[in-house]
Amino acid sequence: MSYLVIPNEVFANDALIWVAAINENLNPAATVLEYGSNQVTLNSGWSTFRTADGNFTIHYQRVPLHNLTQQTRYFLTLRVGGAWQADASFDTIPWRLPGPADPPFIVMLGSCFFAREDPNGNVGRTYMNLPSAARPHIKFLCGDQVYLDNPPQDFLNPLRSRNWLEHRCFQTYLGTWSQQTAEGGGFGQLLKNGANFFSSDDHEFWNNAPDVGLNVPFFTLKKKGRDEWWAIASTLYKIFQTVPSAPVRFNIDPLSFCICETRFNRGSGGGDFMSSANLQEIGKWTRGLNGPGILVLGQPLFAETGNIKDYGLADFTRQYEELKTCLRDSQHSIVILTGDVHFGRIAVTGLRPELGTKLYEVISSPMQLVPGAKAKYAPAPNVFGQVSSEFDFSQSRDHFLTLEFTAPSPQRVSMFPRFWPIAKGGMPIQSQNILRVPIELI
């Protein structure tokens, strides 16, 4: 049926590349991955998953590449028996941020993509046709890359079986990950061009997971149904996206990144939203910063408590307060990058007044709105002292953001966000500035 190559995490000298063969009679002994002038044989290391109904089989692995050259574009080709099967590309990151006179290091931030509402591949086409000077080096996809629980009418039959659910979830991933159009669009194009740092949110499972999903009650009202769905979705997330572990950390001096998982190890509302060990790692990271930090989360920090319809981080009181303590331990400014809420927002508050540091939160959501889920913009609440919000730049439009980083001095970072509406129906692909001047981080 299809072969896929998608870069996962990419650093200065190393990269992790996901390769997969779906419903293919794979010959591992004849399979190689080419990168630049090098190649790695893939005659071992494969894992196999087959849906219980026997309709889908995927052979997959994550291939580590080492001894790469920083700030270099690598083109990937998967060949089986010498024949081309799939390709991709990525850029290795620099050890240090560029200076103010040099082209910036660019990060894409996106969340919430409902593939069924984007049959023309507009999200991928917008990404692929960004001006060359605006192309991201890496992407942070911070949740709801797939909607396994939508549309709700698919789940109205209480007699649907576990095997039906597994088949449907696999098919949703496959349709999203392989989406490519003749005009060069599709979410698959976005995924295969550039590194992808993933974190999950509830629609990688179902709305408000792991608690009852009121939009899919027949499948989540009883614990047995929730456990079955959670097991299916967890397995597929680890196959297609990433295997959640400790927060992923890397530096591009003087900037430090920390990508966290707030859903995969979540308990019921009022419990915890991540493992204690991972929260401790965030604390170690904030206390050890030698410059500004970027923290990627699956849900906003600046948020009120939710309810049984949809819990947020603030509903997990103990860890929410512990996370805020971790942030206050930092001696440098921190930017939280997140999504989830179906509007874009930039908000800021003081972090350590005696040091002049600030805590920013940047939200990008959605890339493609799920029907019936339009949200009203809300300024950030004062949950971390006095919080100020910028104007509603997204105005209910599907979009993603890019963030341009430079280092004007050895311990300072400039961050300039750009808003990219998804171009539909012949719209031009152009950014809209959110701010007049960059955000200065110390």
Structure, explained:
The protein is an alpha+beta fold and 442 residues long. The chain folds into two domains: 1-92, Immunoglobulins (Immunoglobulin-like, Sandwich); 94-441, Purple Acid Phosphatase, chain A, domain 2, CATH 3.60.21. 17% of the residues lie in helices and 30% in strands. The strands form four sheets. Strands 9, 10, 11, 19, 20, 21 and 22 form a seven-stranded mixed β-sheet that branches. Helix 2 (162-177) packs parallel to helix 5 (223-240). The model has no long low-confidence stretch (mean pLDDT 97).
Keywords:
alpha+beta; 2 domains; 22 strands; 7 helices; 442 residues; globular; Immunoglobulin-like; 7-stranded mixed beta sheet
Give the helices and strands, then pairings:
Blueprint: E1 2-10, E2 15-22, E3 31-35, E4 38-41, E5 47-50, E6 57-65, E7 73-80, E8 83-91, E9 105-110, H1 122-128, E10 138-141, H2 162-177, H3 187-192, E11 195-198, H4 217-220, H5 223-240, E12 248-252, E13 255-259, H6 276-287, E14 293-296, H7 317-328, E15 334-338, E16 345-352, E17 357-363, E18 388-389, E19 399-409, E20 412-421, E21 432-433, E22 439-441
Parallel strand pairs: 9-10, 10-11, 13-14, 14-15, 15-17
Antiparallel strand pairs: 1-2, 2-6, 3-4, 3-7, 5-6, 7-8, 9-19, 12-13, 16-17, 16-18, 19-20, 20-21, 20-22
